[in-house]
Amino acid sequence: MKKVRLTINGMPKQFVVATDRVLLDLLRDDLHLTGTKQSCDRKGQCGACTVIVNGKAVRSCLTKVIDLDGAEVITVEGLGAPDNPHLIQEAFVLAGAVQCGYCTPGMIMAAKALLDKNPDPDTAEIKQALAHNLCRCTGYVKIIDAVKLAGRFLRGETTPDQVRPDPEGGMLGVSHPRPTAMLKACGLADFAADIHLQDALEVAVVRSTEYHAVIKSIDTSAAERMPGVIGFMTAKDIKGTNRLKMIFPDQPVLCENKARTLGDPVLVVAAETKAQAQAAAAAVTIGYDPLPAMMTPDEAMAEGAVRIHDEFPNLCFKQPQVKGDAEKALTQSAVMVEAEFHTQMNHQAPTEPEACVAYLEGEGEDAQLVVIGRSIDIHTHKAMLQEALGWKNVRYEEAFAGGQFGIKAAITSEGIAAAAALHFKRPIRYIPGLAESMLLTTKRHPFAMKVKLGADKDGRFTAYVNDFVVNSGAYETLGIVVITRALKMLSGSYHIPNIKAMGELVYTNNAPGGVARGAGPPQVAFALESAVDMLAEKMGVDPLEFRRMNSLKPGESVSTGAVIEQWPFEGLCNAIRPHYDRAKKEAAAFRDGPVRRGVGIACNAFGIAEPGDAATVDVELNPDDGITVYAAAADPGEGTDSMLTQITSHLMDLPMEKVRLVTRTTDQTTGSGPAAASRITYMVGGALVNALEQMKAAMDEAGAANYEGLKKAGKPTRYTGKKNVPGGPLDPKTGQGPTFESQVHNIQMAEVEVNTETGEVRVIKMTSAVDSGPVINPKNLEGQLEGGMDQGVGYALREEYIHGRTKDWVTFKFPTMKTAFDAEVITRETPRLKGTLGSTGIGEMTMVSTAPAVTNAIKDACGARIYDLPATPEKIKAALAQGK
Question: What share of the chain is helix, strand, coil (3-state, %, to 5)?
Fold first, then answer.
C-alpha cells in the first residue's frame, strides 16, 4: 500500500492504494466518476478510459495510481456540465459526433489534450492524436468534424450559438442536437456498469471450456472456502423453464447437463467483490464427457452426426422460395454466371460490454424484480425472463447502451443477473469484460451460397438461383427470422421474373448466430451484387447502367411475388452517375504499377415494416402544456430521441424542451417491438403521428388550445396511437407472400487502392446514395450512413469472429482512425406512400451493400474476384496468382 496525493478536477485528494490499483478503478469505484468507461479488458485498446494527466491524454486502465503522486488529473466531468459545457463538448454535440455516447468522453478528453497544444489540427494530426480511441457508431467522420469545429470555437472564429440551429425555426429537415447528446458528452449518462446498488453482490460465471460435452460433475469445494464468497447458483436453482425462448425453447439460462458451445454458462458465483467472484469461479472444477464438436453445417449434417439438441434435428429449419421457373429460364438465357460465395461469422462489436444489474423492489412474493440492461426490446425480454425464471412481477429498465447493432435483440447477461437476484435475495451486478462478452453474445451468421444469375440478349435479368446454408451455431435465437428476411429481400433492387432459392438453418457447436445490422440481407446481397457485376462484365455493360436498366418498377413483383407500388431506385442511379464517372476517370490513371485503383458499386432495397409488424405509442398533454411521449423505443445511438422529439414538436408547435420522453421502462410503456430492422422511425414514428393526430382532433373538437381547455371540455389528455402492417408469413412451400410496406433504396460506391504485391487494400472513399423519404435530422442520417459504411468496410476487408480465438479488439481487427476513409452522402427524399410524414428508416441499409461494393472495386482495380469474405491480403494474392 502507498499514500498518494493528487488533484482530480481541481480538487485535492489523498488515497492509500495497493500497488496494482489503476486510475480507472480509482475514478469509477472510489469517486464514482463513471464518465470514464471501460471496453477492452484493460489492454489499452479502446481509449474509452482516456483522461488527462499533467496535460497529456492517458489511458487510465494502464495508469497505476502509485505513479501519480502530485499529478493533476482531469476527467470528462471536470470539463463542463450540461448547463455550462466546455466548448469541446458543445462541438461534439453540434457536429453530430455523439451517437451511443459510450466512447464520447474518451474522445473528448483526447481531443482536449490535442487542442490544448495545437488549436488548429488537420485531419492527419487528429487521426494521430485519437489513434487509441475506438468508435463503432460514427465511422469517425463526425468525430473528426467535431474536433475541427472545437478548434474553431477555441480560436474564436465562431461560437456554438452561431452554429446551433434556431430552436424556434423548423423542426423537420434540421439537425437539432439530440436531446441526450450533451448528457453523454459530459459523462453523465448512466450505462449499466455505472449503476451502483447498495449492498450489491458481484457475480462471475463459470463457463464451459468444451465446445460440446456432457456435464458430469461440478466441484465447488475449493471455491467455497475463498474470501468473500456468498454462494453458488446452478440450473436446479432456477424456478422457471430455464429457457430463453425467442422462437425455439433451446437456450438455457444455465446449462443443466450438457454444454453445446464454448462459453456456455454452467454455474454462477456470488461474492462481495468482483475480484472475489472471479477468483472463486476460477477455482470451480467442472467434469466433462466430451462429444464430437461440429463447427460447420457440413459436419453437423453428415451421416451419423450427433444431435446437438435432443428436441430438434441439426437441420432445424428450411424455407424454399419459388417464383416462376428459374431453372427453365436459365436454360433459355443468353448469358449466365454461376459461383459459390461465403460470408464469415462476425461480431457486432458494440464498445460497451454486456453489463446488467438486477434487484428486488419490495418484500417477499410480492417483490418486483427490476432488471436494468441493454435491451432493445424491453417488453419481449421481460416476458422471456418471466417464463425462464418463474417470476411474474418483473420490470425491465433500459440503461443507456453503448451501441448494439442487433446484438441486443437477444438476452445476453440479463438472465443470469436476474436469476441471481432472485436466488441470493440481494442486489446483483454482473459486469462481464470484453472477452466474456464476446463469448456470451450472438454473432452475424455465416452463409454459404450457391448462385446462378441469367440475362437475355438485351441484358435483362431472366432468373436467379440462390441455395444458401446458414450456420446457426449452438442455438436458434432468431436464425429463422434471418433466413426469412434474406428471402424477402433476395432480389434486391431488381426485377427478376424467375426465382428459385432454399434457405437452410443448421445447428452447430459454433457461437450462436443472431441479429446483426441488416440481419440476413448483407450476406445474400454480397452474393447477388457480386453476380450482377460478373454478369455485367460478361455482357460488356457498364455496371451502373446494368443495374439501372434492371431496376424493379411499380407494378412488378419482388422475390416473394408481392407487387410493389413505389420504387424510386432509378433516380438514385441518375444521382450517383456523375460521382461514378468522376471516380472511374480518376481510377484510370492508376492502371499501371503495383498499386492499382478501382471503383465498385452495389445496390440494395432494404425492406421496412414487414407484414404483421405493429407499434403502440401513448402521448399525454401535461398541465404545463408540454407533451410526454410514452414509447418502448430503445435508442442505443440511432437517434430515436431526436425523431420522437422533432416530430412531436413539429406537429404540436411546441418547443423541443417541452417534449418529454418516457421510453426506457416496461412499467410505463406498451410493447412496440424491437429497435431493429430499421423500423423505429416508420413504425413507432407512425404510431406517434397517429396519437398526436388524435390529440389534435380532440383539441379542435373542444376548441381548446391547451391542457386546461381540454380538461374543461371533458376530453382525455392521453391518447394511444397505433401503426399496424397487414399481412402474414411467407408460404412455407413456395416462399411467396406479402412484402414490406416500405423500402429504403441505396447505392454504395467504393473507391479503393490495391497493392498487387502485398494484397493490401486501402479504401480511399465511400459514397452512399440513399432515398429514405424526407429527412428528419440530416446529421443523424449522415452519422448512420457513415458508421454503417465503416462497419461494412470492416466486414469486407478485415473483421472475422473465430470462436475461442477472437478475444479483444486487436484480434477482432476493429476499425480505427487509421483505417477511416473519406465519405460522402447523396440524398433523395421521395415521400413514401405510407411513411411517417413521408419518411422511412435508414439504420441498416448502408451496411448491406458496402461489402460487395468494396469487393467489386477490388476486382475493378486488379482483376481479383473475392468469393469468400473477408477479402484479406492473402486471399487477394491467391486470386491474383490464379488469374481470377
Answer: 35, 25, 45
Q: What are 594's three cell numbers? A: 503495383
Q: Which residues are marked as active site?
A: 844
b/e map 501-519, b = 16+ CB within 10 Å: bbbbbbbbbbbbbbbbbbb
Residue type, 341: F
Using alpha carbons only, give the angle 232, 235, 239 rounded to the nearest 5 degrees.
105
CA distance 244 to 250: 7
User: pLDDT value at position 640?
Assistant: 97
Tell whether the model's pLDDT for residue 612 goes beyond 80: yes
By the 8 A CB rule, do 218 and 286 touch? yes
Helical segments of 588-732, H only: 640-652, 685-702, 707-712
Q: Are 740 and 488 in contact (CB under 8 A)?
A: yes
Say what the pLDDT of residue 168 is: 86
Length of the chain in terms of residues written: 884
Is this prediction's pTM over 0.85? yes
Is the distance from CB of 319 to CB of 559 less than 8 angstroms? no
Cα angle 771-774-775, degrees, rounded to a multiple of 5: 90
Q: How far is CA 533 from CA 464, 498, 603, 796, 881, in A?
A: 14, 19, 11, 16, 21
CA distance 781 to 775: 7
What is the rounded distance in angstroms from the CA atom of residue 238 to the CA atom of residue 569? 52
Virtual torsion, Cα 803, 438, 442, 850, nearest 10 deg: -90
What single string gives the DSSP state of each residue in 390-457? T---EEEEEPB-S--TTGGGS--SHHHHHHHHHHH-S-EEE---HHHHHHHS-BBPPEEEEEEEEE-T
pLDDT, average across residues 584-613: 97
**Under 8 Å CB-to-CB from 437, ≥6 apart: which residues?**
353, 354, 412
The pLDDT tens digits for 484-513 are: 999 999 999 999 999 999 999 999 999 999
Average pLDDT of 659-674? 97
Report how far apart, in Å, the C-alpha atoms of 249 and of each of 246, 382, 506, 520 are. 7, 16, 16, 22
742/727 Cα distance (integer angstroms): 13
> Percent of the chain beyond pLDDT 70?
100
End-to-end CA distance of the chain: 64
pLDDT at 132 over 80: yes
Helix (H, G, I), strand (E, B) or coil at 470: strand
Q: Which one, of 236, 83, 175, 44, lies nearest residue 775 by Cα?
A: 175
Is the per-residue pLDDT at 884 higher than 90?
A: no
What pLDDT band is residue 824 in, cutting at 50, 70 and 90?
A: very high
| Residue range 126-137: mean pLDDT, rounded | 98
**SS3 category, 346:** strand
Cα distance between residue 719 and residue 617, in whole Å: 8
Q: Which three cell numbers stand for residue 798?
A: 478485415
